[in-house]
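Hi L.,

As promised, NADH:flavin oxidoreductase:
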Amino acid sequence: MPALFSELAIRDCEIPNRIAVSPMCQYSCGPDGLPTEWHRVHLGSRAVGGAGIVLTEATAVEPRGRITAHDLGIWNDEQAEALRPITQFVREQGGVPAIQLAHAGHKASKTRPWDGNDPIAPDETDPDGATGWEVLSPSPDAYPPFSGDRPAMRKATQDDIEDVIDDYRNAAERSLEAGFEIAEVHAAHGYLLHEFLSPVTNHREDDYGGSFENRTRLFREVTAAVRDVWPDGKPVFVRLSGTDWLEDRPSWDIDQSVRLADDLADLGVDLIDVSSGGIHPAQKPPGGPNFQVPLAEAIREETQTEIAVGAVGGITEPAQAEALVRNDRADLVLVGREFLREPYFGLRAAGELEDDAPAKWPVQYR
Ligand code: FNR
């Protein structure tokens, strides 16, 4: 049997194969953060398409934590209720529904990518008439020069930090109500938790800045809060940027990621989904197929405590995904853009790698 189609058992959760839909923002909500028919069809198609895990896009734990006014949210019960039919459908297709819990930090309040990805001030609106807001930052003075000025930034106070931790905890509780099996804490791509981790964006001099211990504190506290309310039988994942890809300044790198992975394992994290970059426009990622895999491998091999890893980035071919799992380079393969091009990527992979692939097809299509 192909390794890609071997079950991955984590705690009481049985993931039917090693293929996950990587979280991908759809920017298709109204300012209420409620899922729309788009989400239902988009996520539902990929469940029909054979993904073992269907991860939602970055889902904001509070309104300020949205990248755009069109992001999905999980800061109220109505949102949780509206997500329930989606998680139910994913389950009915044999997949495991997972949610990425996110706070965009100082990269929030922007126009959508197709409208330019520009920061919006609280007194401005995007092309759809949605207003901007003041964004939360570890250190407004350290905001990197992303497109356009960043007019309204608020330096996170101790109260703000406590609120963020509560927001994550409450969002996790609601996610459970909504029927998700896996909670993934988003700490990558230059968003709030990564902004605290990286010395590029964290110039604080309090308990949340400076040393490795201090810069990782918020992420560890958030993760502990999520783990605290997430049932023992269900997995918690985190997404990390394994490195900032910045060698010309103090930044976040793979050695710190490996060190942090040990702390995360102690906190009860089951899998680290290893991405990279996003903190500063001067980053120099290598790119190409499997370009982030060495980061996942380093975490898998160098942590003292055994922890599963997910590989993501430039994975487009079933044989490529199969090799990653078969050769013990990753426990899970997350596929992003290829799942946009081919919603049935999981079924295609089964067709290419397995003899009895039709058994994997939905009964309606066999
Ligand atoms: C993304 N990505 C992303 N990552 C994440 O952690 N949360 C998110 O919400 C998003 N949103 C998003 C939207 C779109 C349209 C794309 C294309 C990407 C990154 C994504 O999950 C993945 O890590 C990268 O796309 C690299 O994987 P692929 O696309 O090379 O398989």
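The longest strand covers residues 53-60.

Thanks again for sending the construct details.

K.
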